[in-house]
Specification:
By secondary structure, this protein is α/β, with parallel strands linked by helices. The chain is built from 33 helices and 21 strands. Among the domains are: about 170 residues, no CATH class; about 80 residues, no CATH class; about 140 residues, Rossmann fold (3-Layer(aba) Sandwich), CATH 3.40.50.
């Protein structure tokens, strides 16, 4: 372990604000390490590199032989021995925890078994008991199973006052008690675990030593210590080992999924995670500051702290794309939480799954706030294929409802509420208007009641009513816009001719991500149809079922795609978490807002990374979605993703092109600056750069290309035999080709940026997209220009 450490001094970027100078030699170095806190402004713990092997190992093993001359070798041996002893010691405890976990799982299984037994008692109470017991047992088993990996990760040694002789306090992904019901493991979200994240050297809060245990499955592989209060350990009884859990965690190779940071949450992040659940919590910060991962831990925290409310009401997590949702999907289950709906913006509406992106200029039109008015007009239109007038003969009279009459009746019905909710009133409204035209003596004499009876028994009338006012589905209504004449008519004063031309070409294929917000708008404008058409005021109710299928129009059949959407009344959640919030269009804010009318919210974003061209409009829509809920703002200031070399490069770009970026401080240096290469042949340039990065890093490599080159570059990659294995596996491939927008929220160990200028000029917000791309690499980055 020690042999691979660097032996050169790397200067500290800024001194730890909490550091107090102390003695000299090995002891001094121990103190210096120990004084490093988890404050984001403290760069000591992460930037102070080892000074020499002797000093470093002396520091790490805390060999208390002050005054003695020790050789490098002997100190290293001492260090390794101490570290191994500590690991062995922790392993004993971890083994005990896993034994208890197995026992708890067995108990939960026995409870489920007993529950099934109750169900066989043969009375209703037994069945209710069975369901409750089996449900509780299943939940417990799922939690215990999910927590298996890295179950124990933290240990606190407290001072005498705070610890009150309780011994070390161990922190884990879930809480566990031993057979005597004594606490064995404290859930990381419990108040008793908060000091694990919040204690600093300046304010140790009773913590003498904080230890992170690194495990592979149930095996302890390393321990990493912070001595927060050396004075409380004046006798030096607590060994201090390791290089710092945070740096170890940050330097790990990246795979295609995000991991929980439960062992290394930093103090400023912890504040946002544990913020009270009221109102809206906004988490801002530049690239790589942990906004996403913090928000996910917050969701887990909320579920823990108010399980009844959030599990019953539901937690919705909204992210930019399917790729991103797959990237984050393992974080919450690894924290024992599975009851969360993860939806990309194309999947927010139940029953709809859109992945296709429109061209930027089309998406900009579809996302604009003015589309709300367009949808309002659309929802009031006559059904395109419905008959334009009604003609019936009754006794001595021809009754004619002209298209003008029908328009008036449509407006009359719409003035009474949402379109689908009017179904029970349709027949009566038509019949009233028709009855006014019955003037012949025979008709009047027999009265309205007989007229109504006769009409309702007439196939032509029933067919007309059902076709004129069918139950409308949002997908079918949005499909009406494929007709350029209709689009032209209703977009008067809203869209320009150019915009109309752009849009009319887009609704012939499957729904795009931007269409989903329009569908949702229509769902709410149209309203839910009455649950069953058995309303006693609806004279057509008994006729509907047998008539409906035949009366569906051609347009209906063409544009009703996929499974039916769920009713709007089932849309609400108890908590809504929006990631990459800077990218939501006004229409998407309206859609997400409807899910959180009575919810608490967590909103995460960085305006400089926004790909929406009219920020003021999106801000207004966001304010409307959040209403007058109280706001609580948190800001994260440290970049944990990029090496400082890569982030400096990206930050310089942001300043050069005038992005008003929130520039965080990147804490990890690799000594390797990004490379800007000019190449004569792009294909061989990409091949070379990819090979180089694939060799240099252990984890993932992303090739980011302009939209127009995606297929071409993917073709190149597929044809290179040396990368065949790494490029296989679709979303899980180690080497992948992506466009700029698809990189949002993701990260790779190495990034090759192909033709950055083209990416910049791809859309009105291309500079922000390129800034996002430049902030995705953890270790190495090469830009290629041909
Ligand atoms: N306290 C921490 N300990 C270890 N790793 C961390 C910590 N905080 C953040 N990270 C890591 O830093 C990386 C960036 O985190 P994340 O993606 O949440 O940042 P972000 O602010 O959402 O980034 P962006 O806005 O650029 O998409 C992730 O790999 C995450 O696991």
């Amino acid at each position: 372990m020690t042999s691979s450490r660097p032996t050169k001094t790397v200067t500290t970027a800024s001194p730890c604000p909490t550091r107090r100078p102390r003695g000299v030699g090995a002891r001094r170095l121990t103190e210096r390490r120990a004084r490093c806190c988890r404050s984001a402004t403290c760069t000591d713990s992460v930037r102070t590199a080892p000074v020499t092997t002797v000093e470093l190992t002396a520091r790490s093993s805390r060999t208390r032989t002050t005054g003695e001359t020790v050789s490098s070798l002997s100190v290293e041996v001492a260090h390794d021995t101490v570290a191994q002893q500590e690991i062995a010691h922790e392993q004993e405890f971890v083994d005990r925890v896993y034994t208890q976990l197995a026992l708890s799982t067995k108990n939960a299984e026995a409870l489920a078994h007993e529950g099934y037994g109750r169900g066989r008692l043969g009375h209703e109470g037994g069945l209710v008991e069975r369901d409750a017991m089996v449900f509780q047992a299943a939940k417990r088993i799922a939690t215990l199973n999910a927590a298996h990996e890295g179950l124990v990760f933290g240990r606190l040694d407290l001072d005498e006052v705070t610890g009150r002789g309780e011994g070390p306090r161990y922190i884990g992904r879930i809480g566990l008690r031993d057979e005597n019901r004594d606490s064995l493991l404290v859930d990381w979200r419990a108040p008793a675990a908060a000091v694990f994240y919040q204690a600093t050297a300046a304010d140790p809060q009773g913590v003498v030593r904080r230890r992170v245990l690194r495990c592979v499955a149930s095996r302890v592989t390393a321990v990493e210590d912070d001595l927060l209060d050396p004075e409380a350990d004046a006798a030096g009884d607590l060994p201090i080992v390791g290089e710092g859990a945070l740096m170890a965690q940050l330097s790990r190779a990246r795979d295609r999924t995000m991991h929980s940071i439960v062992a290394t949450i930093q103090a400023e992040q912890d504040k946002a995670i544990r913020a009270p659940s009221k109102g809206v919590v906004s988490i801002s910060g530049g690239p790589g500051t942990g906004k996403t991962v913090v928000a996910l831990h917050r969701a887990a925290y909320l579920l823990y702290s108010d399980r009844r409310r959030y599990e019953t009401g539901g937690v919705l997590v909204v992210g930019p794309s399917g790729v991103f949702m797959r990237y984050i999907e393992r974080v919450l289950p690894s924290l024992g939480e599975t009851a969360v709906a993860l939806r990309s913006l194309g999947e927010v509406v139940d029953g709809v799954r859109a992945t296709r992106h429109d061209d930027p200029e089309v998406a900009d039109v579809k996302g604009g706030a003015r589309m709300a008015e367009l949808m309002r007009r659309l929802a009031r239109q006559a059904v395109p294929d419905a008959p334009a007038e009604l003609r019936m003969y009754y006794r001595d009279d021809w009754i004619v409802l002209t298209s003008g009459d029908l328009s008036r009746l449509r407006r009359q019905l719409l003035s009474q509420g949402k379109r689908n909710r009017q179904l029970p009133r349709v027949a009566a409204t038509l019949l009233d208007a028709m009855w006014r035209q019955v003037t012949g003596e025979r008709g009047r004499e027999r009265g309205k009641e007989e007229f109504v009876d006769q009409m309702l028994g007439t196939q032509a009338f029933v067919e007309f009513a059902l076709t004129w006012w069918p139950v409308l589905d949002a997908a079918q209504v949005l499909g009406w816009l494929a007709d350029p004449a209709l689009l032209g008519r209703i977009s008067e004063g809203i869209l320009s001719d150019e915009e109309r031309a752009l849009l009319s070409r887009t609704w012939s294929d499957d729904w795009s991500v931007a269409d989903v917000a329009l569908l949702d708008e229509l769902r709410y404008l149209l309203g839910d149809a009455p649950e069953r058409r058995d309303d006693e005021n609806d004279p057509l109710a008994h006729l509907v079922d047998e008539n409906m299928p035949e009366l569906t129009t051609i347009t209906d059949r063409e544009f009703s795609r996929g499974p039916a959407m769920v009713r709007t009344e089932d849309d609400g959640y108890a908590h809504v978490l929006v990631d990459e919030a800077q990218d939501l269009t006004p229409m998407q804010w309206r859609m997400v807002g409807r899910r959180g009318r009575t919810a608490t919210w967590t909103i995460v974003g960085d305006p400089a990374q926004s790909s929406w061209p009219v920020p003021a409009e999106a801000a207004a829509a966001r304010e409307e979605a959040l209403g007058d809920k109280a706001r609580h703002d948190f800001h994260l200031s440290t970049n944990y993703r990029n090496s400082s070399e890569i982030y400096d490069f990206a930050a310089a770009y942001a300043s050069r092109v005038g992005l008003e970026a929130d520039l965080p401080h990147a804490v990890r240096s690799t000594g390797i600056a990004p490379e800007e290469r000019q190449v004569a042949d792009l294909r061989s340039g990409v091949r070379e750069a990819v090979a180089e990065l694939a060799d240099a890093v252990a984890g993932t490599v992303g090739i980011v290309v302009p939209v127009a080159r995606r297929a071409e570059v993917q073709g190149w990659l597929d044809s290179w035999p040396e990368h065949a294995e790494a490029a296989a596996g679709g979303a899980d491939a180690r080497i992948a080709v992506l466009i700029g927008l698809d990189t949002k929220g993701l990260e790779f160990d190495g990034i090759v940026v192909v033709q950055p200028e083209e990416i910049e000029h791809e859309s009105a917000t291309g500079r922000a997209t390129l800034y996002v791309v430049l902030t995705r690499a953890t270790q190495r980055m090469i830009t290629l220009t041909a």
